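Chapter review: from sequence to fold.
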Amino acid sequence: MVDQLSPLAPVLRPGRHPQSDRIGVTLAEVQPGSIVQVAAWRGQEGSLISSIREVTGLVLPDGAGGGIATEAKAAFGFAPGKFLVVDPDEGLAAAFAGSVTAETGTVTDLSHGRTAIRVAGPKAEWVLSKFFAVDFSLPAFPEGSGLSTVHHDVFAQIQRTGAERFDLYVFRSFARSFWKSLCHASEEVGYEVL
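The token string follows.
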């Protein structure tokens, strides 16, 4: 395993910000070993979902937005026939290459092109609502579900990975700027960087 260089290293400052006893959210960079996009050709969505189950053990609901997240792995549909799959180990794209045929769809390894950021805590929905015109409430955005959206020019794929926890995947080239904005937006509720 190769040590990943974080695009957030120059701006990621662990600790409480601003210094206070009130912490509404925690922010952290998550470094999964693999971030892979799999996409099905029209009519092959069921086969692709079966391949995701075969390779990862994750049982996905059919359709855009549906997903599942465990402590180690996650997958969600973010558009019709398109899924983001995350694993703590490297090599997921190669595993899919053996399962997803050219007749079924495509596999794209995004591991070195994305940065994963976790926003968690009782004010996570509040902070994310400052960026995205999305209803982040639990009934509208249940655990495991995900979507793709943008904040200005920053494309983000977002999955609810817990009752008060979201994982965001952004382009590495925008990660530092987005992180700074996220920290600034979290100041009013108090935040801690892990």
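Two observations follow directly from the output. DSSP finds four helices and twelve strands in the chain. The radius of gyration is 17 Å.
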